[in-house]
Design a protein that fits this description.
The structure holds two protein chains of two kinds.
Chain A lengths: L6 E4 L3 H10 L3 E4 L5 H6 L7 E4 L9 E3 L3 E5 L4 H5 L2 H6 L1 H8 L4 H6 L2 H7 L5 H8 L3 E6 L2 E6 H4 E3 L2 E2 L6 E8 L5 E6 L9 E8 L1 E7 L6 E2 L1 H8 L4 H5 L16 H21 L1
Parallel strand pairs in A: 1-3, 2-3
Antiparallel strand pairs in A: 4-5, 5-10, 6-7, 6-10, 8-9, 11-12, 12-13, 13-14
Helix pairs in contact in A: 5-8
Chain B lengths: L1 E6 L2 E6 L6 H8 L18 E4 L2 E4 L12 E3 L13 H8 L9 H14 L5 H7 L11 H16 L1
Classes of the chains: A alpha+beta, B alpha+beta.
Bound molecules: flavin-adenine dinucleotide and FE2/S2 (inorganic) cluster (2 copies).
Flavin-adenine dinucleotide sits at the interface of chains A and B.
Chain lengths: 272, 156
């Protein structure tokens, strides 16, 4: 199984990558390739050209910036899971990175790739959504910032336009209570349902694999800020949400799981 | 497209299509057929090789992405005189294989694991190998082999 033919060019800088993208409509970025190549092998993606940004060294960093941690888009999952800065300032993110796939996947996959792919079944996009991260996007016309909650738009669809590169993820420090519940039944599997809970002032909760994109459990969040108990709030986990049905789980089972996992997440986040 | 990389210590250059996967490059272009293809969907780990010393599933990497990098396959693990790598010996001594199909990938994943965590617990070995499937052994002897290798390699 191999992809259909394409041209390949390795970009040595973000500006070079942007100018290639702007000159070729069907050109696509490749970072670690661990979401894109599987799609291309199945011929579900057929870019005319791959622009490899995987070697742009200055996009791979983790920096303490006072109230937040700045992570370069090309930082690999393995570097995030083992980073002392991330472990100290955003412990949930280090933990979630350690749950992605398996060690070999984490040696290649990047945070920027995972977030740009925006898969509703992915762990890291949901984590940065609950952490209220800000995404830094660079294009020929400059740099703009997008809040994570405005970034995910639909099935594998984000706020990124052709010609834009996600360059940095700014994650507010979150050393209060947190929990990440990943429910799966086999080693290295994707979450059937996952829940991220972060207590940082208010409580933020996001859901994995409950919609076509990562989403916040808004009904739970507003119930909690209105003084509801954990039990009451968790019962609202899938309020207004239409979860998918697939071979692993029916929509009803997902709704049930979401309530159970939100309750567990809230209990854990209130005790650590 | 011309790619040049170091494979098992030797520099190689080949002209390949950009869509050539690294696993096909080592098997078909270089004739190094120790690296197996199991699932072809990044799930089984049979195709695991090292890229710059780290385990990678070579069915999910393009040969052009490996241009200029250091690749090690199972053929590069033994010494030039044929003496096996301590991990290979540990698999042999602990009966860590039956049909052997998963073994090259297991050995590559396990050596990468010990590089990052030289003294893993049994649970850490199991977690560290979660991307490598074995249909024969039930994993128990594989885990034993990796723990034995960790003990042995520490003395070297
Ligand atoms: C076997 C396996 C198991 C996995 N298990 C999990 C799991 O349990 N949980 C989980 O969350 N994920 C899982 N993943 C996905 C993994 O996390 C991917 O590495 C990640 O989603 C994509 O990162 P990448 O760098 O490989 O991106 P790529 O595949 O290179 O790119 C993905 C998409 O993002 C675009 N892109 C990449 N970088 C940028 C950028 N900087 N700016 C703009 N666009 C960009 C690309 O054009 C492409 O469309 C798994 C993958 C595999 C193969
Ligand atoms: S063949 Fe590459 S992971 Fe199975
Ligand atoms: S020994 Fe047969 S698959 Fe592992």
């Amino acid at each position: 199984m191999f992809p259909s033919s394409f041209d390949y060019v390795r970009a040595s800088s973000v500006s070079e990558a942007i100018s290639i993208l702007n000159n070729e409509e069907d050109a696509k970025l490749i970072a670690g390739g661990h979401s894109l190549l599987p799609l291309m092998k199945l011929r579900l993606a057929n870019p005319s050209k791959l622009v490899d940004i995987g070697r742009i060294g200055d996009l791979s960093y983790i920096a303490d910036r006072g109230d937040h941690v700045a992570i370069g888009a090309l930082t690999r999952h393995a570097a995030i899971e083992s980073s002392d800065v991330v472990k100290a300032s955003v412990p949930m993110l280090a933990y979630v990175a350690s749950l992605v796939g398996d060690p070999s996947v984490r040696h290649r996959g990047t945070l920027g790739g995972s977030v740009s792919h925006g898969d509703g079944a992915s762990d890291l996009p949901a984590a940065i959504l609950a952490l209220d991260a800000t995404l830094v996007v660079t294009s020929a016309s400059g740099v703009r910032e997008v809040a994570a909650k405005d970034f995910f738009k639909g099935f594998l669809e984000t706020d990124l336009n052709q010609g834009e590169v996600l360059t940095e993820i700014k994650v507010p420090k979150a050393t209060g209570g947190w929990s990440y519940q990943k429910f799966n039944r086999r080693a290295q599997d994707w979450a059937i349902v996952g829940v991220a809970a972060v207590r940082n002032g208010s409580t933020k909760i996001s859901l994995v694999n409950m919609a076509s994109m990562p989403i916040r459990a808004e009904a739970v969040e507003s119930a909690l800020s209105g003084g509801a108990s954990i039990e009451e709030a968790a019962a609202l986990a899938s309020e207004g949400i239409e979860p998918p049905s697939d071979l692993n789980a029916s929509a009803d089972y997902r709704r049930h799981l979401a309530s159970v996992l939100v309750r567990r997440a809230l209990v854990e986040a209130s005790s650590n | 497209m011309e790619v040049t990389m170091t494979v098992n210590g030797a520099k190689v250059s080949k002209d390949v299509e950009p869509r050539t996967l690294l696993v096909h490059f080592v098997r078909d272009n270089l004739g190094l057929t120790g690296t197996n293809v199991g699932c072809d969907t990044s799930s089984c780990g049979a195709c695991t090789v090292h890229v710059n010393g780290e385990s990678v599933k070579s069915c999910t990497m393009l040969a052009v992405q490996a241009d200029g990098q250091e690749i090690t396959t199972i053929e590069g693990m033994a010494q030039a005189n044929g003496e096996m790598h301590p991990m290979q010996k540990a698999f042999q001594e602990n009966h860590g294989l039956q049909c052997g199909y998963c073994t090259p990938g297991m050995v590559m994943a396990a050596t990468s694991l010990l590089k990052e965590n030289p003294h893993p617990t049994e649970q850490e070995v199991r977690n560290g190998l979660e991307g490598n499937l074995c249909r024969c052994t039930g994993y128990h002897n594989i885990v034993k082999a990796v723990l034995a290798a960790a003990d042995g390699m520490a003395e070297v």
